[in-house]
């Protein structure tokens, strides 16, 4: 343990703790722009400079380990003046277009300028007007607003291992841009949106389609059907003063109806259907001989990664569509037929925690299995929050309501889909039942839970089969596992797993690229806890127990992996070039 004094306050911290972290423990906030707890300290912005008594050296708190006996000054007149000057220099190259910026009132630079009283511009402005990159349907790059903090590059390269973003140039000419200075849509980008989630300003953000929803919802000729993803219910409330992880499911249903939705469904129903199909596929591969390990397929960022970087493992992917795409196809077929509604008039909207979902709905012809676009529009959690505010809805005071039947009912297994390990846990619960005809005495599979980069375990299914499973989140972490599978294939063997879940984002969908800003491990933990709470309080906790799912198979699909299921609920994958020509 290290003993030090920060701004006159004695602090005891573990060895290896930085001065910045020690100050936070003491209740002192040191300003930063380049620092993020998910990333290694970059030390580029200089705002976290501090003094050490007895030394003339100025330290950067984010990158300086605490040492025994340190006496740190974090705030005084001189440091405040230096920080104000740094902010003024940053603003001399940053557009003052706050009112029209998507990050207005949520911008870290704006907040610091207010705190430090930056009211004038003493330096000559040198703002470069650079074109926006709108080459993807998910992410917009606005390099004119980039402050060169390095967060996005670190996220893309270190956390995701994608290397779609980089710095080019030197000195004042340094610029953040897609790899090889290509349009983002032609780069290795997997559209996960983690760059946007970690950007402190408005240089990277999701494609905003809120006005499209407002227009379509007001069209009396259309039947607007909206689904919400598992992870949205534990995060949207943060935009309205709720704590991370607080369940606001019923309020979201009510809000969507007030925004003009004719029907409100839940993607969790689609998740239960995904479990039925994916678990059946796994059981078939295990008991009848098939390509193993089976890899999950519900995360579109992960799908784009594997089809670009590991096309030789495409045959390992489950053919099951994501819950969103299953829900969309079911809405325009099974549900539309039951309701005697012309599917051409159904406008299908999905509220998702993920920016890659905006691209998924256009991926290939399998996304039109109903004969129409199965999902017409995807809005992120952040977009929905902005629309609710635009309509003057007091979200906190909304009464709770229920999703519409029959494709709004869900099990506890489906609601944990948004958590790393949740897909695995849900599928194993049902696979056990499909093999034994019985349910697990305890549906909680603790070995798949947690934040470890790769977690693995095994479940003996009464001596009839053994499912060895793995859970990985974050693309950089997935690489090691995928390399193991690839190497085993080259040797004519296979990796020691039957089933592996992969999610592109750290923590899973609860920390997706479209979730409320400010996500760190503490927030991830609270959102995860909220998801497990929803599971625990559910009337049924396994997908195969969902009465509406049973009815859908009885009335329409027949059984998992049937011909109709394959047509509507399954897909195929093709190799995608890392760089487009």
Secondary-structure map:
Layout: E1 2-6, E2 9-13, H1 19-25, E3 49-52, E4 58-60, E5 71-73, H2 77-91, H3 108-115, E6 139-141, H4 151-159, E7 165-168, E8 175-178, H5 194-198, E9 204-206, H6 210-217, E10 223-228, H7 249-258, E11 263-266, H8 267-288, E12 294-295, H9 300-309, H10 323-339, E13 346-352, H11 357-360, E14 377-380, H12 381-390, H13 412-415, H14 422-436, E15 454-461, E16 465-473, H15 475-490, E17 499-503, H16 521-536, H17 547-557, H18 563-569
Parallel strand pairs: 1-5, 10-11, 10-13, 12-17, 13-14, 16-17
Antiparallel strand pairs: 1-2, 3-4, 3-5, 6-9, 7-8, 15-16
Helix pairs in contact: 8-10, 8-14
Q: What would you say this structure looks like, in words?
A:
- By secondary structure, this protein is α/β, with parallel strands linked by helices.
- The protein folds into 3 domains: 74 residues, Ubiquitin-like (UB roll), CATH 3.10.20.740; 86 residues, Alpha-Beta Plaits (2-Layer Sandwich); 359 residues, 3-Layer(aba) Sandwich (Rossmann fold), CATH 3.40.50.
- Helix content is 33%, strand content 14%.
- It contains 18 helices and 17 strands.
- It has a 5-stranded mixed beta sheet, with helices on one face. Strands 11-10-13-14 form a 4-stranded parallel beta sheet, sandwiched between helices. Strands 12-17-16-15 form a 4-stranded mixed beta sheet, sandwiched between helices.
- A hairpin with a 2-residue loop joins strand 1 and strand 2.
- The model has no long low-confidence stretch (mean pLDDT 95).
